[in-house]
């Protein structure tokens, strides 16, 4: 039977020209969480960080067709005079809900077109003077690596329409390829008589295939909400656009495209594209801080077979670099790669969280904290002339001093000084002049750096730091400034700002990020190395006060062994260089929590290439082979389910028909290698399933078989569960699988019905996703 279906599908695929093995990559991912939000404007519900109309970088929010736009008095409710980006909870409360809270897929900041709320303030009459029409354009999306007809758009949507003679609404989605005419992908209308009518759908995930043509280099997606007035809304969130890689150019660059804080001592790597088999060299690496030199191919730094390149010696601090990797082609010479970019780390960084004390009597509105809190500085580091942004004080009978304390010992690079900058400073001379600078590691033993003259301020609002004190990498936690004289003779002394810069000697930038959750068991620990570190001592444990040294490594990466599921780990990296004045720089304490379950099968790797045996039913055998009532996948491509998914982009559709013998239905996978599901403290299996309301009630079960043929079967306790059109997690304790060796699993079966007591049943479909093993997080 399977052979018959194989031949039928081969014909279908041949006619459809289905692409071969997939290699999915992300073109765009946007959840709007990085947008800075501001306060409400005309909505009554107060909030400091609740709303903006400024879209993500490169996007375009076209509100030009909103009646009255541009005049706050006649543009309706200002927050909604166009696509808005707002805190979902604030939006829901501001609008008195009206079913907006049903959009549970949207979280945090969401994109909203809300004609209903917009209409609550004066605006030109609708529809007499026009309708509420708004358009949200994505940034241009690079398609140069995408196979034709493989782009897929996924987003979460909340749509509530209304229709009468005055008020209605329409939404559409359009795509523009290479600045050509827009192509409409779908249209929703609120008129129930329209063939495009879409009823209430306040919480759904939309998945749409986009027909990117051969040769298209870029596209823009346009979300349109128009022909609207006082109806309801359309809100979107969690936009994900993917495609299949074209198989020509290198991809997955490390550092990632657009990365910042890249160490100047770094190894660049990539996943190779197609190149001529047997050719050498296979890759041409082009690197420069000049984009034109990279685009033209003039900045070749290596031609090689290796899939990495050590850029040490090629990189400077605080510089943006461009690079690409070309692949060998005996016909055309080289296939040019995509140009990527990254920005290197700075040589030194500002110390945050500085504390300051003084022995002086400070003016009430001009305390010493003003010298380290950034008050008076604009985005260009120009200081104001407002005296309330500075420090001013005096001390009778003793030298005035200011003492600064950091949160730890730093390798000090420089101190930048903005002197007292009142508009009358040229006359008053309150600014510091002759100053003794000292430093200390403990606040008890002090070392003099020397006497420094602080330059006088300019008494203008364009004043920038004009004194730099060089510490030369001195390790210190405290700095003291003792005033020997000022620029005047009044006995009062003032200072605007100081900024301490440090050379990063400690480990920083942990990956996984500090506090990360759901970290995979096999994840390597990575960090940005402290400057000049010769080795790295890694400490790890489950208690922050009891870390053990688990390794000393030469590179800024460490792969810990024997991590357990659902466990919080603490770790620290000490940077070591015996030749340094400070041989060990102790690191911060970081933490991460491991995943509850590791995937056995997430169903993401299956393709529509049955010639290569990559279809889902080539791995999960069904009734065509095992003579049960099951059908895995669909008869036409795509074979896996791509719209109803728990995570990722695919799930397994398992159709069951238990109306005829043998009265049960099974999907069966035999693993190429024996599976050990006892590692890392695992104590249970997990899978997600989802039914449909029209299903016949039947029992879902799992059967395992080990290497010597021992089996164990566990049934779900509720046959009605297959009628629920929502994802449900089924956890199966290992204690329910007694008798089978879970360290040597050969076969897994997911079935519907009962193989031990089969009786005639019904039909239906169940979706399976994210099958895994592990351990549940202890919630006590």
Automatic annotation (TrEMBL):
Please give the InterPro entries that the UniProt record associates with this protein: FA58C, Galactose-bd-like_sf
Coiled-coil positions are none
All residue ranges annotated as the F5/8 type C domain in the record: 344-487
Tell me the keywords, alphabetical order: Signal
Residues spanning the signal sequence: 1-21
* Protein's UniProt keywords contain Signal: yes
What Pfam families does its record include? F5_F8_type_C (PF00754)
> Superkingdom of the source?
Bacteria
What name does the UniProt record give this protein?
Discoidin domain-containing protein
Tell me what organism the protein belongs to: Anaerobaca lacustris
